[in-house]
Structure formats: C-alpha cells, structure tokens
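From the methods appendix. Each design record in this collection lists the tokenized structure first, followed by the designed amino acid sequence. Records were kept in a plain field format so they could be parsed without special tools. The example shown here is representative of the layout used throughout.

RECORD:
FOLD TOKENS (218 positions):
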C-alpha cells in the first residue's frame, strides 16, 4: 500500500476531523512511500521503535505519538533521538490519540467494554469520550473489580464499598480520571479509567460513585 493511501484510510475510518486534540493526528514523521508492514503499539518509545525495526516495519501506528500541545517544540534530546531513528530507518510514524479512544468499534473504550462484557448504550461527555453501559447481571463492586483484574492481568485500585451492588457503568481509558465529575452527573454506579488523582478519591467517596483505576494502556 502507498503511504498516502494508508494515511487517507486511517484518517477517514477514525474520523479525525471530529476531534480537537492535544496533538496532531495522522502522519507525524514521513518514511518510505510504500508500506509493506505496519507495526502497532501504544506509545512511540525508543524500545518500541527498535522492536518495530527488528520486525521489518515500514510504518508504525500508535496511540501516543509526538508533538503534544504545550510541550517544548525543540527537536532535542530524547525527541531528537526518536525522530532521527525513524528518519534514518525510513519508518513512518502515524499517531491517533482521541480518535482512537472514541471510535465506536475500533476504539479503546469500545474494546475495553467488549473485554469486560459491558453492553454499550451511549457515548457522552467531552467529544463523546465517555462510554456508558450495563452489566448483564448485578455484581458487587468487589466481584466486578476482581473480574477486571482477571481480564486485564493486573489488580485495579478500587474506591468504594466492595459489597455494594452495581449495574450501570461509565468508563474512559487512559488518564481520564478528571471525567469522574461527568460520571457523577450521569448517575452511574461506577466509573472506570486508567489513572487516579488525589481529588478523584474524594469525589468518589462523597458522591457515592465508585471509582476503579487500572485500565491505563501505559
């Protein structure tokens, strides 16, 4: 496939124009004009880039690329090393942040819901980034958090009464703990995200909306 075709296809299917993001979505570093092999990953770290080269990648597609809003724009240090590696090896870097979070089929939220057996019935909040769904049957918070741990292979951090029954769930992957206020307004029983902040604990306890942290892709 020609690189331009790949860029146009991913831009269209992920509906990039819908989002006001913190970084450029799409082709961030241009490599070979023809792509035979794509390697995907979460973040374009140097370890990932080296692994992609070893796998024979002509292009890499990631969730977390470069050139974030408010970061130093100078191409020095670690950023310089990563970009130089891509250019030296003619590997293209494609990055999609919010579009990959929110896509109703391919997105991180959609895939997490599928993995956890949640029936998605709506997307809401900032740019449709908060997924809402229901458990097929009532579970206690403790049972649900144990299930999440088994499915993801990591023990989540849980704020709330483990014996409380839950049914309605909202979630947003990654560092979306700030959306707990939106989840509270939605009236769900529990909000799931990847990370946690000090204020998240208090909002959860005082509102009665349980919080589960531990689904981050970092």
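DESIGN:
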């Amino acid at each position: 496939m020609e690189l331009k075709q790949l860029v146009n296809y991913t831009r269209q299917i992920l509906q990039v124009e819908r989002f006001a993001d913190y970084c450029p979505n799409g082709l961030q570093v241009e490599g070979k004009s023809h792509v035979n092999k794509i390697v995907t990953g979460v973040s374009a770290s140097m370890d990932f880039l080296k692994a992609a080269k070893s796998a024979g990648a002509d292009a890499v597609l990631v969730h977390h690329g470069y050139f974030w809003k408010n970061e130093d724009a100078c191409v020095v240090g670690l950023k310089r090393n990563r970009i130089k590696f891509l250019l030296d090896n003619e590997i293209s870097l494609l990055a999609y942040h919010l579009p990959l979070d929110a896509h109703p089929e391919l997105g991180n939220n959609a895939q997490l819901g599928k993995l956890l057996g949640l029936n998605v019935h709506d997307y809401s909040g900032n740019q449709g980034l908060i997924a809402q769904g229901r458990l097929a049957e009532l579970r206690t918070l403790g049972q649900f958090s144990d299930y999440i741990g088994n499915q993801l292979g990591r023990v989540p951090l849980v704020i709330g009464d483990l014996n409380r029954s839950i049914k309605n769930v909202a979630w947003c992957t990654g560092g979306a703990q700030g959306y707990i206020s939106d989840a509270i307004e939605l009236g769900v029983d529990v909000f799931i995200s990847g990370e946690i902040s000090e204020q998240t604990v208090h909002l959860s306890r005082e509102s009665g909306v349980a919080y589960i942290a531990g689904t981050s892709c970092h």
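APPENDIX NOTE: The radius of gyration is 19 Å.
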